[in-house]
Design goal:
It comes from Thioalkalivibrio denitrificans. By secondary structure, the chain is an alpha+beta fold. The protein folds into two domains: 163 residues, Gcn5-related N-acetyltransferase (GNAT) (Aminopeptidase, 3-Layer(aba) Sandwich); 161 residues, 3-Layer(aba) Sandwich (Aminopeptidase), CATH 3.40.630. It has eleven helices and 16 strands. Strands 1, 2, 3, 4, 5, 6, 7, 8 and 16 form a nine-stranded mixed beta sheet that branches. β4 and β5 form a beta hairpin. α2 runs antiparallel to α7 and α5 crosses α8. The chain is globular, with a radius of gyration of 21 Å. The two termini are 23 Å apart. The model has no long low-confidence stretch (mean pLDDT 91).
């Protein structure tokens, strides 16, 4: 990357560099310590983006006196179907600048805008949890996130679930559902792929989930719920600091009948509580969808996400989401595909849904 900016700051010169493998441990150490950083800022996503999904990664860091003081992970997603964008971070719910101070944040933001202009993308998208760039076009009314503290007492967490939802969890317990940790995605993938196909969503390739487990090790875990030895539901979760983030989940057609989804997330919360995690991050949902209602039923309050855009070639903020009426026919058709066909075609499409 050429012409990276340097700027004077009160504590010395701030320069911007492009992450390589040698500095990945230092990058991750900064992410672990920076309050603004999230699991999705970790360096492991760079390898997944490039080697599995086939997108160019531009992981920018701000440096002062040889020490990283800010990071901005960017992925360049360019497809025929969904356009050309520079995103922090593709396939992740949070992103944007994570920095030690405002000077470092400003330098990284300027570098990202310069890069977007040089790449001639349609737009730069920063997936912030709080507003950061006044005057930029934003999406404030589409996505929300759901986060809630986990009490150190398991029973208190159960009692904190609203009564109707708690009854669903107990229904799963009465059906003698059992949660089991898996060391691979062998049980998870068939459940997840069938589940998203029924929703009309193209699935990722199996190797994407295998790559996540490889990249993040013990911080990426699969929990599968069974009934009489048969898988009912499954979720792939991430762990970061004191947080657990259930990220990809699904269930069989039997799951609703036996409260398989409800028990799945309760069992995950219970296990996280017992292991000392203190925040349950249910992740992003679109307002007005089934997942939004499901999470609210657990007593979680929605918090708006602030996705900000620097428009380059685009004239307006993109509207690539299943609530867009122009995708309704595609979604309806996808639901009717045989599962083997959906699993074959899905990865070619999903890689563009950054």
């Amino acid at each position: 990357m050429h012409d990276l900016p340097r700027t004077e700051a009160g504590n010395g010169i701030v320069s911007v560099g492009l992450l390589d493998d040698a500095r990945a441990p230092e990058w991750d150490a900064f992410v672990e310590s920076c309050p603004d950083a999230t699991f999705f800022h970790r360096a492991g996503w760079r390898r997944v983006l490039e080697q599995v999904l086939g997108h160019q990664a531009h992981y920018l860091y701000a440096e002062r006196d040889g020490v990283i003081v800010g990071v901005l992970p960017l992925g360049h997603v360019k497809t025929v179907l969904f356009g050309n964008a520079l995103i922090s971070v593709p396939f992740c719910v949070y992103g944007g600048v994570a920095a030690q101070d405002e000077r470092a944040a400003a330098v990284l933001t300027d570098a990202a805008c310069d890069l977007a202009e040089r790449l001639e993308v349609d737009y730069l998208e920063l997936r912030n949890q709080v507003p950061r760039n006044p005057g930029w076009p934003r999406k404030d009314d589409l996505y929300v996130t759901f986060r809630k503290p986990i009490d150190a007492d398991v029973e208190k967490n159960m009692l904190a679930i609203p009564r109707k939802q708690r009854a669903m969890v107990r229904k799963g317990i009465k059906h003698e559902l059992t949660g089991e940790l898996d060391g691979d995605v062998e049980r998870f993938f068939p459940i997840y792929s069938d589940s998203v196909r029924r929703l009309g969503t193209p699935v990722f390739a199996r190797r994407y989930f295998e790559a996540l487990m490889d990249a993040f090790g013990d911080d990426c875990e699969v929990l599968t719920v069974t009934r009489n030895g048969e898988p009912v539901s499954s979720v792939l979760s991430f762990y970061f600091r004191d947080q657990v983030l259930p990220y990809y989940g699904g269930g069989t057609e039997q799951a609703r009948e036996v409260a398989g989804y409800d028990f799945l997330y309760w069992d995950l919360m219970r296990r996280a509580c017992e292991r000392g995690y203190r925040v349950f991050d249910y992740g992003r949902s679109k307002v007005g969808t089934g997942s939004y209602s499901f999470k609210k039923n657990w007593g979680f309050e929605p918090e708006p996400l602030h996705y900000e855009y620097h428009l380059v070639r685009a004239k307006s903020v993109p509207d690539i989401n299943p609530l867009n009426p122009k995708y309704r026919l595609f979604i309806a058709a996808w639901k009717r595909l045989p599962l083997p066909v959906a699993n074959l075609l899905g990865p070619m499409i999903s890689r563009g849904l950054g």
